[in-house]
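Regression test attached.
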Amino acid sequence: DQQVKQNSPSLSVQEGRISILNCDYTNSMFDYFLWYKKYPAEGPTFLISISSIKDKNEDGRFTVFLNKSAKHLSLHIVPSQPGDSAVYFCAARTNAGKSTFGDGTTLTVKP
Amino acid sequence: DVKVTQSSRYLVKRTGEKVFLECVQDMDHENMFWYRQDPGLGLRLIYFSYDVKMKEKGDIPEGYSVSREKKERFSLILESASTNQTSMYLCASSSIRTGIISYNEQFFGPGTRLTVL
């Protein structure tokens, strides 16, 4: 039973446009959500997070939206840059401390 | 600067060998984690540890064990390596705010690409 799902394995956008990466979850006990970015041959790095008591968190070009009723979150990148090309993982955390990760979405931003 | 290091970037072992993967963090974090990453399967948690000498099974602990004798070091052990353990192994650490509840993000090492022949 996969509790965190990223249904799009890949996404391709033009430089300067918006990238929208989606994530769905099933466990209503998740209280904190995070996005990580991973370049090839490197470990994932933290990008942005959101608490379950909020519906939006913004950090520069990156905004995460949370829709608790739909158990859905999304990451918006505006404007997209070629350096944003990477694998993006959605993760959800319960108060037990460990995170459950999605399968990842490979974003390609074309110049 | 936060740092998680893993003992090897690439490792090739033979079936049946005992394999040790070492992870060290310099951030005084309480929590440490071992994941494996496989195409189409994302990051799957093998084991994690809240404190020295404490360990908890993750989602796929079979065929693995761990050791945490010091706070900064978390070792993953493959007692008898098999070909289906060929994978990218990622170590991570995170801090805690209160008790065993962790709000903070995980910091990952660069990964070890293990090939079992």
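Expected vs. actual: identical. Chain A touches chain B through 24 residues (CB under 8 Å).
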